[in-house]
Amino acid sequence: xxxxxxxxxxxxxxxxxxxLIVRPSALGDVCRSVPVLASLRRAYPxxxxxxxxxxxxxxxxxxxxxLTSVIAFPRNEFGRMARRMRYGPILRWMSELRRRxxxxxxxxxxxxxxxxxxxxxxxxxRIGYANAPEAAWLAYTTLSRADMDMHAVDRMLSLVSAxxxxxxRDMRLYPDPDEAxxxxxxxxxxxxxxxxxxxxxxxxxxxxxxFIDAARAMLxxxxxxxxxxxxxxxxxxxxxxxxxxxxxxxxxxxxxxxTVGGLLALVSRSTAVLCNDSAVLHMAVGLEKxxxxxxxxxxxxxxxxxxxxxxxxxxVRESDRLDHKNDAAGTALMERITVAEVVEAVLRRYRSVx
Length: 354
Fold this sequence. Notes:
By secondary structure, this protein is an alpha/beta fold. Helices cover 38% and strands 14% of the residues.
């Protein structure tokens, strides 16, 4: 297997009629991978460009005008099949990738599973990271030697450069027009702030009571409405805000009540977004929404809102260990963020629009 170093050129990129992007998950990463799609479409205006994405996350990109089609990866279903040792449907799904005869495949995830999908295509040009973990690099014919300290978006765009394509830093996301119309009837025309108070990792969560205090302060300062969002499994993380919504009609509880497509449409209608480091943050970036992002034990230069560092509130000291899996250290960092500074930042953005 030959390996080549990436390079950029103003020359026309190598010919390709069928292109595949491999980025199955997670939802926030899927949202911030769209510059790869935008870059490829500009370079190959007539090509077929498909995207392997986890089926539950497909609505985040399904309506992007640069995309030809989504190839849904049914992760949960395949997981159940694998546990029962029923590999036939999985192998048939992977065989279909080969039958599509892709010319060019970019693995934007760079893990063993995505590398297997990439290798299964048998495409003559398969591009991935030279330093990909889990020996994923063995699946690629061309390697990008991107620095691990690069922002995740720039790292993915290094794959584009390795393909001989000039990067396009277009983060735009496109909600489902039907979801957007339905939302208009449910939410109405008044401006609102989205609060997304959840995170998979406890060390990334701003204390729930502070979200409650911030919501009250913003409403007292003239914000018309607050909409609280989260996954069905995250209602415990939002319990205080949900309880507050029962007594204050200005607070709307949408926790567990919004699909991925509905959430994207909701963010597109919002006036501003307040959130922890989560998928909602990357939706706000892709929809060019005013944003206040609360960060603790995370390296913003790698995974923060792309080119929007001014929208981040984070208080890091030289002695801090940035490890989002260390709950105690992360919580201590998140607790340095005060209610007053958050409210001031959100109101400034809200008032600039309303």
